[in-house]
Amino acid sequence: MSNKGKLIVISGFSGAGxxxxxxxxxxxxxxxxxxxxTTRNPRPGEENGREYYFKTVDEFKTLIxxxxxxxxxxxxxxxxxxxxxxVEDELEAGKDVILEIEVQGAMNVKSQYPDAVxxxxxxxxxxTLKERLTGRGSEDAKTIEKRIKRAAEExxxxxxxxxxxxxxxxxxxxxxxxxxxxxRKCAKENNLEFISQIKNDFRLEGEI
Amino acid sequence: MSNKGKLIVISGFSGAGxxxxxxxxxxxxxxxxxxxxTTRNPRPGEENGREYYFKTVDEFKTLIxxxxxxxxxxxxxxxxxxxxxxVEDELEAGKDVILEIEVQGAMNVKSQYPDAVxxxxxxxxxxTLKERLTGRGSEDAKTIEKRIKRAAEExxxxxxxxxxxxxxxxxxxxxxxxxxxxxRKCAKENNLEFISQIKNDFRLEGEI
Lengths: 208, 208
Description:
2 copies of one chain form a homodimer. By secondary structure, chain A is an alpha/beta fold.
């Protein structure tokens, strides 16, 4: 099997709990997590380098010019990007890296890293998603409406993903995502070198 | 996700321990195991319906005529086949069924059940395989030679499989095969109905 790490792209409905799933994957299975850079302002409690790397627009644009992101996008007035150096260093060191990004970024990453694993986290149905989005109790009707609209848009992009994992029970979901990643390492496409080696070993000794 | 069970085809080098892996999958994860039918004579200790269903050549040929096998093949002088009814009943009942069969049968199954999962169990290299084949101590040189020749032929067929799982540590190997099966259930292709459902749910309410 290849010694390079795997790039794992995790997206999902807002409200499906993908943040918690990602946190679980890092804590339970030791995956490496890429922290995005953004030009949006830190929210109370957020820390530079933990939730995001907070950048000015100028800093961000310079990083774009220097090819510092493996993908970046603009949402409303803010920029978001995945720092290239961290990801490439980790992969080179054989670590599997999780990116928690949106569909546009996911497609972008896949075109550069064809063996990236694209996973979409969802609730088991739309009703559950709506319950979770409305049930937090802390948001006003307008915010909830915006979130549901966003989820509806996200639903249109599910086909772009290779795996759909339902987050019904958190711990099961974390284990299942881990299984998906493990399985990709066993896929034939990731073992062509191994296959060719073992065939050659037999052929060289003239045993066939 | 589909409620039908998955068909899991496990092949591998003689000496890679696939029999023990399959046993572990049944015991630890509750997979259903298909018992093959054969015309070869029972060996000491083998029981009808446990290792094989032992049939006469006439009985076997009648079963072929009645489409009683999902695949069958002749090796040397003996016939081997996978009884159709058991497999189809189990799949219909939502159970995942393991077939431990050779490459020819694997290809045959895949053409009839395109979403069958094809897994090849191997040692981590050829040397380890030879050690295992020669190290049993109970076989004469000629039998060992035949086994290695057979392994060399099997190596030529690895490409036919979708997943390559290395049996270095038995328990890890069993868990990895289980991961491969789990992950296939999450593959987009196995969730088209779910995807279309959730999209429709959003569209019907006019939320997009």
